[in-house]
Specification:
- The chain is of the alpha+beta class.
- The protein folds into three domains: 2-214; 274-433, 2-Layer Sandwich (Beta-Lactamase), CATH 3.30.450.40; 511-669, 2-Layer Sandwich (Heat Shock Protein 90).
- The protein contains 17 helices and 13 strands.
- The protein has helices at residues 2-8, 12-78, 85-104, 109-137, 142-150, 152-230, 245-278, 284-300, 326-330, 341-349, 367-370, 405-473, 480-508, 521-531, 533-539, 556-572, 640-650; strands spanning 304-311, 316-322, 334-335, 353-355, 376-384, 387-396, 517-519, 542-545, 552-554, 581-588, 603-608, 655-659, 665-669.
- Strands 3-2-1-6-5-4 form a six-stranded antiparallel beta sheet, with helices on both faces. Strands 8-10-11-13-12 form a five-stranded mixed beta sheet.
- The two termini are 100 Å apart.
- Residues 1-5, 591-601 and 676-689 have low confidence and may be disordered.
């Protein structure tokens, strides 16, 4: 186990070299064994080829000597010279055959000696035959007869052939030995190669395991934990216990992870604290300052936190807030410049100031030291767009403390967030005060307008009634001009009353809590059409209504008012030579389709007509009160579309028109569907009728 741990602790380059050695050395050994076996086979093959050549030459020598014997016998028996042709050819070919045989055995002295003996006996045999042939030619047959009768020639030939056979047998024995050796070597090589392959496979498996345990495994673990580190969920410690480069890298990654986790926790805490101090509650800016002072102690674990705001007008500090029990003692108090030199330096230089030992400061009076008992101080500026406007003072009263660079940066980050929170709180309070003033003024104006409308309603009614009384009591006593004037007075009185009533109705919208219910637009459309039945019949208008509508969340009367104004306008503003055609339906936000289903924000109700149309430049103006756009002779008060706009905005919807002159108009509006939570708040005082 210790040796394995030693291997695992090797440097990576040594591990790679060892694994390569384990896997490559056996392979090289098998290759060398294979090459050696192949060489032996090639040598045996060459020896076999040489033996075949030797056999061919010895066979040729035997045949040539046999031809010599046969040619000699034929010549002796027939005295015909043509029988000597084989004799002469054999005699001629014998020397080359002997020479080639010697060349084939040139590396074996013993075989060379045997071939020399065969050559000498063969030449003696040829010389003997030539002498006998000459005797026959000269007619001396006695030597020939003695030779034949003694069987000497056959004996010599048999001896030579016996020598050749013995030579061949020795060559065969030599070849057999080499073949046996080659076979043994082949067997050994075959088993050796098989064993080597098995050994290589085992060593490769062993090398792969070593590679996996010492290199690829740790690398995979590092990769996995690096990915986990990227997602913020890296496990510690990383399961790599070696001391090589990979082990050191793992320890480095663990250190980085711990450092990053620490910084992230600090940033998260800082963010949470910043979000907390930035929350503007009912206590306003004073609550923000108090939370800053309290949370400052949590950030750096200090004893006292002070928010000092510089008052340029009087040249001193206003204590905005303090942590703990010091808040009630110091809030809204003033600190003079001479007793806070460290805070002044942080304010004027716009840099953090640290004092490890306040008792060593030469100033005779230091408020934070002498009154609060602070031993160490960190003062960081509260920076705004135009420079520092205050200081966050962090004091340690229990022990002397050295603030690290990280703590200083952390304190400055908190101070920057605190400065933003303070500026936002100031802006919020200013905007809130202005909004309250505007809201109060608006309510006063609305109340005044309602009262004025109510006060004017009585005189207008009395004027119309007086004109009516004059017409009825003095009928026939006035001339036509006087009667016409009285009719104008009565008509204008009624118009003034109607306009005042519309103004009161507009002022009432949103003035009190409205009952929100599930309203079917189809029912509201039917109610409006019932009220307009006489006008529709008189004009011959054609009205098309969608088959179904989704229920909307609003007050039934409000939806009735919207549809009543839009449908009556569609019947009213039509050229005299054109029959009114009105379409009331539903479409999605893109203007396509008319189905009932859809998202809460994508359903649009519309009223389309074929009237006179509206110029694009006037699309927004028509929703302003009393805007008639050149149609002053048309009946009405000019406030209907203003009522439509105010009602839709009351329910957080909107209304708009799509129109071109002479091409009709499509008035579209949105209201929340019934599934959508809706709240309607009063925007003014109740208006009396």
């Amino acid at each position: 186990m210790s040796s394995l741990m030693d291997v695992r602790n090797w440097p990576v380059r040594y591990k790679v070299a060892g694994i390569l050695a384990v896997t490559l050395v056996p392979l090289i050994g098998i290759m060398l064994l294979y090459l050696s076996t192949l060489q032996q086979f090639l040598l045996v093959e060459a020896e076999v080829k040489r033996l075949y050549a030797v056999q061919l030459q010895t066979e040729s020598i035997r045949n040539q000597l046999t031809d010599v014997q046969d040619g000699f016998r034929g010549f002796v028996l027939t005295r015909n010279e043509k029988f000597l042709t084989p004799f002469y050819e054999s005699e001629e070919n014998l020397d080359p055959a002997l020479h080639r045989l010697k060349d084939l055995i040139r590396n074996d002295p013993d075989r060379q000696q045997q071939v020399t003996q065969i050559e000498e006996r063969a030449r003696s045999f040829l010389q003997l035959k030539r002498g006998l042939i000459d005797s026959v030619r000269h007619g001396d047959l006695a030597p020939v007869r003695n030779h034949i009768e003694s069987g000497r020639g056959a004996a010599i030939l048999d001896g030579i052939q016996a020598d050749i056979v013995s030579f061949e047998q020795l060559e065969r024995n030599t070849l057999q030995q080499k073949q046996q050796r080659a076979n043994r070597l082949a067997t050994v090589s075959r088993y050796g190669i098989v064993a080597g392959i098995v050994a290589i496979l085992f060593l490769w498996w062993l090398g792969s395991r070593l590679l996996a345990r010492t290199i690829t495994g740790p690398l995979a673990s590092l990769t996995f934990h690096a990915l986990k580190f990227g997602t913020g969920r890296m496990a510690r410690p990383i399961p790599i216990a070696t001391t090589d480069e990979l082990g050191r890298l793992a320890r480095t990654m663990e250190g980085m992870a711990e450092s990053v986790a620490y910084h992230i926790s600090q940033l998260e805490a800082l963010h949470a604290i910043g979000r907390d101090v930035s929350t503007i509650g009912p206590d306003g800016i004073e609550g923000v300052l108090k939370r800053i002072a309290e949370r400052a102690g949590n950030v750096l674990n200090i004893d006292i936190g002070l928010v000092l705001l510089w008052n340029e007008g009087i040249g001193c500090w206003n204590v905005g807030a303090a942590s703990g029990s010091w808040h009630e003692l110091l809030r809204r108090s003033v600190l003079i410049r001479e007793e806070t030199p460290i805070a002044i330096t942080a304010l004027t230089t716009d840099t953090a100031q640290m004092v490890e030992d306040l008792s060593a400061r030469p100033e005779p009076v230091l408020q934070i030291r002498d009154r609060m008992g602070a031993k160490s101080l960190l003062a960081v500026p509260l920076r705004g767009k135009e420079g520092a406007f205050g200081v966050l003072a962090l004091a340690s009263t229990s022990t002397k403390r050295i603030f690290t660079d990280l703590e200083v940066r952390l304190g400055q980050q908190f101070a920057d967030q605190a400065a933003i929170a303070i500026m936002n709180a100031r802006l919020y309070e200013a905007a809130h005060q202005r909004s309250e003033g505007l809201q109060s003024r608006l309510q006063e104006l609305e109340h005044y307008a309602a009262n004025m409308a109510h006060d004017l309603k009585g005189p207008a009614r009395r004027m119309a009634e007086l004109a009516s009384l004059l017409q009825s009591d003095y009928k026939g006593r006035f001339d036509d001009r006087a009667d016409r004037y009285l009719e104008w007075m009565q008509e204008n009185g009624h118009q003034l009353m109607a306009r005042i009533e519309e103004v009161l109705r507009l002022a009432r919208i949103g003035s009190v809590h409205e009952v929100v219910e599930a309203v079917d637009p189809g029912e509201a459309v039917r109610d409006v059409l019932t009220g307009c039945a006489e006008q529709i019949e008189r004009s011959g208008a054609r009205v098309e209504v969608a088959e179904a509508f989704p229920r909307v969340a609003c007050n039934h009367v409000h939806l009735f008012q919207i549809l009543d104004n839009l449908i009556r306008n569609a019947l009213k503003f039509v050229p005299k030579d054109r029959t009114p055609h009105i379409e009331i339906g539903l479409r999605d936000g893109s203007g396509n389709g008319s189905g009932v289903t859809g998202s809460l924000e994508a359903r649009v109700l519309f009223v389309r007509d074929n009237g006179i149309g509206i110029r694009p430049a006037d699309h927004d103006r028509i929703f302003e009160p009393f805007e008639r756009l050149g149609q002053n002779d048309a009946p009405g008060t000019g406030i209907g579309l203003a009522i439509v706009k105010k009602i839709t905005e009351l329910y957080q919807g909107r209304v708009w028109v799509e129109s071109q002159p002479g091409q009709g108009s499509t008035f579209c509006f949105t209201l929340p569907l019934y599934a959508e939570p809706t709240s309607v708040k009063p925007v003014g005082k109740e208006v009396r009728a």
